[in-house]
Amino acid sequence: MNLSALRISTERLVIRPFAPEDFEAFFAYHRLPEVYRFLYQEPLDEAAARAKFAKASIPRLDDDGDTAVFAVERREDGALIGEVLLKVASKAAQQVETGYIFNPVFAGKGYATEAMRAVLELGFSTLSFHRIFARLDALNKGSVGVVERLGMRREAHLIENDRFNDTWGDEFVYALLKREWPQRA
Q1: Where in the sequence is the domain holding 129, given as residue range(s)?
Q2: How many CB atoms lie within 10 A of CB 126?
Q3: What is the pLDDT of residues 55-94, one digit of tens each?
Q4: Which CATH number fits the domain that encloses residue 102?
Q5: What is the value of pTM for the model shown?
Q6: Could you give the number of structural domains in the chain?
Q7: Which residue of 44, 150, 151, 155 could cross-link 30, Cys pair, CB 3.0 to 4.6 Å?
Q8: How many CB atoms lie within 10 A of CB 122?
């Protein structure tokens, strides 16, 4: 599948590759400390954001480690509200990690759940992955709510497995198998 031509429409959203004109909105949320609170790194400066944006603008899922990042656009006004991704964890085992980052201005409206439902459908039904998983900070209640609303199963609670600014953090791993998706879709 040519991911650079992907376009998925949901009730309120369009999921598509990033376009050059998306950079300012992309940088607007990538520079916010509250967005990076659970990502174990500092918010991006403009140079780092440009590098990340350039990489995100070329979605690939051919080999282990490849990542396809897609812009999430609100249909009503074309606003870029965030991004969703799939990252090949193991091509041989047909496993991908998923994730998302949304501008907090648009939080609390169900956009992340709606976008992630579309990404899971893409991953299972179109791309035929066997297992899709998400790793998230155990304190990130918003993200826990998203994956649980999607019916993802908590498979692990990793204790103090990551460290940022001298603070240890726990991580949850949630997952779904392709055969489980039809009951949750």
Answers
A1: 3-184
A2: 11
A3: 999 999 999 999 999 999 999 999 999 999 999 999 999 9
A4: 3.40.630.30
A5: 0.94
A6: 1
A7: 44
A8: 22
